[in-house]
Amino acid sequence: MSGRSCVGDVVNAVELLVGSGQPGGMTNLRRAAAHDEPFLRETLAAAADWRTPAAVRSGDEVMHDPVVAHYLAGWPLDGDFGVIADDAGVPVGAAWCRCFVSEPHGYGFVAPDVSELTIGVVTERRGRGIGRLLLTEVISEAQRRGIARISLSVEADNLAIDLYIDVGFVEAFRIHDSPTMVIDVGANRT
């Protein structure tokens, strides 16, 4: 992947404390960095294999799969940005954006100037608002960087589709039964 058109470097390290759903626990959101790549691999594997959580490939295995490895290969590349959710220093979720201006691009590719989102929350922490927190912060970071739109691809029977619609993603087109969705982050103030 060469040349990024979604590049921006107006970054303020943002840390938010929010209720984690655990008694006395807090979820911290922080900017994703190069040292987070091993957890991002695990998150990518969980996102790719969401239907069979008991059979999720390892992060190393998923990086050998050319269909999905390009979402993370070389992390971080110019223009990549993301956020990690953790509880007491233990990562529990991640969301990141990458622009694809040349082949291969992702399932949610819309255009070279649209950042594509990857998101995942560890199985035992799903349904507790962490995905919404990650999405909200990624959208805010895109706004700070002057990025106009973010896209994603989701399978039609993935329950997360309701979250994406709720925060403002709309279907742009479908490939087979998987909607590619886009949000205009300039118009969305979550």
Structural features, described:
The protein is α+β, with helices and mostly antiparallel strands and 190 residues long. The protein has a single domain (16-184), classed as Aminopeptidase, CATH 3.40.630. It contains four helices and eight strands, in the order ββααβββαβαββ. It has an eight-stranded mixed sheet with strand order 1-2-3-4-5-6-8-7. α3 links the parallel β5 (115-121) and β6. The longest helix has 16 residues, at 130-145.
Features:
alpha+beta; 8-stranded mixed β-sheet; 190 residues; globular
Summarize the helices and strands and which ones pair or pack:
Layout lengths: L15 E4 L6 E6 L5 H12 L10 H4 L18 E7 L2 E9 L16 E7 L8 H16 L3 E5 L6 H8 L2 E6 L2 E7 L6
Parallel strand pairs: 5-6
Antiparallel strand pairs: 1-2, 2-3, 3-4, 4-5, 6-8, 7-8
Helix content: 10-25%
Instruction: Give the overall pLDDT as a whole number.
Output: 82
Which structural class should the secondary elements be placed in? alpha+beta
**Major beta sheet summary:** 8 strands, mixed
Report the strand count: 8
Question: What's the helix-strand series?
Answer: EEHHEEEHEHEE
CATH class: Alpha Beta
